[in-house]
Amino acid sequence: CPFQAMEREVIAALGKGEPDEIMSSAFKLKVTREDIHTLRNLRWLNDEVINFYMSLLVERNKKEGYPAVHAFSTFFYPKLISGGYRAVRRWTRGVDLFKQDLILVPIHLRVHWALVVIDVRKKTIKYFDSMGQKGDKICETLFQYLQEESREKRNLELTFSEWTLRSMESHEIPQQLNGSDCGVFMCKYADYISRDKPITFTQNHMPYFRKKMVWEIIHQQLL
Q: Active-site residue among 129, 139, 181, 191?
């Protein structure tokens, strides 16, 4: 049965072995066994796993019938905060953000992950946090970034009044019930949103999602 074969592969990947063995390599990224082990239940996901998963989403969305998606690396937002627009100006070489439907920005808040989704079609910037925290300032910072990018790359001003910035309320999106699943919540928000699907999962799906992500990363394809 293919499901059992998949299960065996996942168990093997999460099991013993050389920590620096490369389990998957694509998108100029490498994921080691040690990285994969952050997908064990109740572990915090690391940057490598999140960036690889976001790259898989972008890849999938190149197919017919999906919104065009650009995902920034987890290292983008800290760089923007510390160095301003100049520090990240070259991060979009060869990418026209304004031709995308959705832009995903993973936000690393020291011990927590959240997600900002910029919907270029609807002119919205929304903050998704599985602990219900507010990210209005973060949305404003990203609007300012878009504004600079628009001036720099196409000599156009964005009109602030045309855009809606907001933090999703805790009753609107699934919330985590432990201290360790924020990274998985963030990845799955991104997955559902990039399929234009309502976000219907719950905390109960986390152990399954973690295993599924192990398989998807090793095989470099989303199920």
A: 129
